[in-house]
Design brief:
By secondary structure, the protein is mainly alpha-helical. The protein has one domain: Four Helix Bundle (Hemerythrin (Met), subunit A), CATH 1.20.120. The chain contains 2 helices and no strands. The chain has helices at residues 6-115, 118-180. The longest helix is centred in the middle third of the chain and has 110 residues, at 6-115.
């Protein structure tokens, strides 16, 4: 280096410094120029991800509300069927009591007809015929009530199965939400 003129060293040295400075500034400038673009891209991606999450949350909320609404409707339906079933069972109990009274009355009238004299016998037979008609009507009502009770019991079982299904779906939905958190 001693043989190289000082002017050339300074020029070469200045050139290198200028080149390194330019490269450094270029790198810094290019890094800053790319960085806002990268940050903007990252923000766009983040906003898109947030939108997707909000859409998923909104869909999940709607689904949960629908399931809860269906569960409440099924609950009300079950309560109505239970009320109807209890009313039919109360009617069955009252009808069974009426059957017992009717059977007692029939027995009493039948004994009265057997022991009646001819002038009273005709009246007793009319009463017995009326009591038999009433007993048959009570029996028909008993059969209708039993069929109604059976239909309501079946409907109750179906509604309860539907309720259990909806409840299980709601529980699965709740578990899937907790799993994603």
């Amino acid at each position: 280096m001693l043989n190289v003129p000082m002017k050339k060293i300074l020029t070469t040295r200045a050139t290198w410094i200028a080149v390194l400075g330019a490269l450094t500034l270029g790198t810094v400038a290019s890094g800053q120029a790319h960085r806002p673009d990268a940050t903007l891209d990252e923000l766009v991606v983040e906003v898109q991800a947030m939108r997707a999450e909000m859409n998923q949350a909104a869909a999940a909320s709607i689904r949960a509300q629908l399931l809860v609404g269906r569960l409440q409707m099924e609950d009300q339906r079950i309560a109505g069927v239970v009320r109807d079933l209890e009313a039919v069972q109360a009617d069955l109990a009252a009808n069974a009591h009426a059957r017992t009274e009717s059977a007692t009355k029939l027995k009493t009238l039948d004994e009265a007809v057997m022991g009646a004299t001819s002038d009273v016998r005709e009246e007793a037979e009319k009463q017995l015929a009326g009591a038999k008609a009433a007993a048959e009507q009570i029996d028909r009502r008993q059969q209708l009530l039993k069929r109604r009770e059976s239909a309501l019991a079946k409907e109750l079982q179906e509604d309860q199965a539907r309720w259990r299904d909806l409840n299980a779906r709601l529980e699965n939905f709740e578990q899937s939400i907790q799993a994603t958190r």
